[in-house]
Amino acid sequence: MEGGIDTSTDTSAFKECLSLTWRNPYVLRLAFSAGIGGLLFGYDTGVISGALLYIRDDFKSVDRKTVLQESIVSMAVAGAIIGAAVGGWMNDRFGRRRVLLIADFLFFVGAVIMASAPGAALLIVGRIFVGLGVGMASMTSPLYISEASPAKIRGALVSTNGFLITGGQFLSYLINLAFTKAPGTWRWMVGVAGFPALLQFILMLLLPESPRWLYRKGREEAAKVILRKIYPAHEVEQEIQDLKESVEAEIKEEGSSEKMNIIKLLKTKAVRRGLTAGVGLQVFQQFVGINTVMYYSPTIVQLAGFASNRTALLLSLVTAGLNAFGSIVSIYFIDRTGRKKLLIISLTGVVVSLGVLSGVFHETTTHSPMVSRVETSHFSNITCPDYSSALNSGAWDCMTCLKASSPDCGFCSSPTNKVNHMENQKIQI
């Protein structure tokens, strides 16, 4: 980045950020407009958790086939992989601003397709479109913010993109709650994402390209015009010079016969350790299972016995809220305590939380209530086919019921209310 990220950032970084953006609203406008991409990223990855409850109610094929539920959720991730893979090339070829515009178009089209989908197939198609937008926006938004921000507050502004992602997830749960009793329920939930996408599209049309990309493409005067709007008059010339030197060094390296390749980078100890730490953290934070919790949180709550869709969404809001709150805490403490210490504290919390979850799941499995024909007789003898034909049905408990292969088996289920939490707490299979 031109000028680099100011390494002298301290606990007053965000006070400096507020001060500079107050004196120069243009910087805040650039950061906010690009940051909507992070908000959309969080919203579209979080909204499906609540919408899925109502999609299953409307489409019986989705309710009966878990593979369809998994496809509706995971196709956004698959699309994001593709979007991120091509996003880097597109950023260099077409510029950051155009890639964000393309991502907004994909977000909007995906939202419209999902909101009007007559069945699971089009829902999956819409999720793929949204995923492509997520992949592009996830790498382009922070890149645009970093290249269009003053060096002194660059770290602070880029950090807010992470908060907007978790904030978008929290917002998705609030939107889900707001539309639980509206006609169309889940169609509104997934369709609302089209509005911020349209807003960002309009805002980005009115904003310039990244000054670094312009300079890199030989459009020096256009880049200087933007830098003069971003930096105070007494700093702009130095920033122009820093940008010039940075781009020239980059071009020189690309044209050199000694250009470093992946193998040479991996042979460099410092680069190898940094790459291992950075990529390792990204990989392992996914393997702890946070995406499963975020995507299926209301479903997990219902399996715990809270039957109401609205109640399940309300309880899941706690998870999303703590997720967003964690981002705020990390932004405040990251320069006060340091990256490593904050990371160790966070990982300790993750380990403890996973240990508690494991213990609870183990207790639930080993102490699952038994199920008998006497209990099912309270529901007009509606029983699970697997239970009826079981050789040893007397050994069945709630966990056996949940694991049954028949799509008609489930926790507290009935034809009229799939998750029917009875007042007498009886379990029906």
Automatic annotation (TrEMBL):
PROSITE patterns assigned: MFS (PS50850), SUGAR_TRANSPORT_2 (PS00217)
GO MF terms held by the record: myo-inositol:proton symporter activity
Sequence ranges assigned to domain Major facilitator superfamily (MFS) profile in this UniProt record: 30-429
Superkingdom, taxonomy of origin: Eukaryota
UniProt xrefs under PANTHER family: INOSITOL TRANSPORTER 2-RELATED, PROTON MYO-INOSITOL COTRANSPORTER
Membrane topology note: Multi-pass membrane protein
GO CC annotation, single: membrane
Keyword Heme: no
Keywords: Membrane, Transmembrane, Transmembrane helix, Transport
Predominant subcellular localization, coarse grouping: membrane
InterPro entries on file: MFS_dom, MFS_sugar_transport-like, MFS_trans_sf, Myo-inositol_Transporter, Sugar/inositol_transpt, Sugar_transporter_CS
Protein name: Major facilitator superfamily (MFS) profile domain-containing protein
Family of the protein in this entry: Belongs to the major facilitator superfamily. Sugar transporter (TC 2.A.1.1) family.
Subcellular location: Membrane
Transmembrane segments: 30-55, 67-87, 99-118, 124-145, 157-179, 185-207, 274-297, 312-335, 342-361
Originating organism: Gossypium klotzschianum
Signal peptide from the UniProt entry: none
